[in-house]
Amino acid sequence: MIDFRYHLVSIVAIFLALAVGIVMGTTLLQSPAIESALRTSNQMTQDNTQLRAQLDALRGREAGNDSFVTALTAQRVAGELTGQHVVLIETPSSSTAYREAEQQVLAQAGALVTGRVLLDEKFADPKQSGVIDGLANSLKPEGMTFPAAATPYAKVGAVLAATVLTTDQAQASTANPATGAVLGGFEEGGFLSIEGDPNKRATLAVMFAPEKPYEGDNAEAQADALVKLAGGLDAGGKGTVVTATAPTAAASGGVISALRDDSEVAKRVSTVDTPDMPAGRIVIVDALREQLSGRAGHYGVGTGAPTFQPAAPTATPSPTQSGS
Asked: What is the pTM of this model?
């Protein structure tokens, strides 16, 4: 008769054999998988190291290039804007660092910055469009009429342009006596603030668009408000350039993107999407120079910019030069 110990030993033997089989089978199956995973991991580590080295090299090249361009900027832009007066328009979330850097390049180009107009967040808020419209109508100079289809922001663009800009070089850096209360009226309403003396009219304008695209249901209307403002400024002076970085330029809700999509304003107002680059700051000066000649273009590396910079101006042959 088989006793209990025999059964117990048999059962233990069976489970032991089963366990050994499972372990051996699993080991045999996993070994190729583990080796493959190790090879993949080693390759990824190697690739990552190579990519980091390439990135470091590219950063070094970029830093060297930026340093070279910065050192030559004053020489490159010298005299391009001599005698011109520029007003700077800063929008909510625009970059102070880019504005300061560009202001220095404008000075190197011979331009005088008359002042800065800093727009408040609520300036482009659609809920404030009725107030904006009322202020534009009440503060406009005597004799100014708006087109029947003019939007509130087209109107305010025309009114602000009459205040801070002029097409007459002789009137540059002089105040328009008919618009003395305009900046104060919008400032009192909390729509903007000023630095310097933008009331003394400039001939050119540079708008620093928001570096954060507008979002939500009102994004399109907010971006369009600043596009219409840029169009109004351009009409009141000798030219306007709007600038913001390429990621913003390509984004939905970005002012640069909206402007480039606006066929009417895009024909007159230039855009530059590289204010973060030393070379891009030179391009802004070149775009202003091009505006003075009555042309406009869209420059940079982002969507809607066919070339990085305007074409170099063609030298006019002197009367003594041969045409052949």
From this structure: 0.82
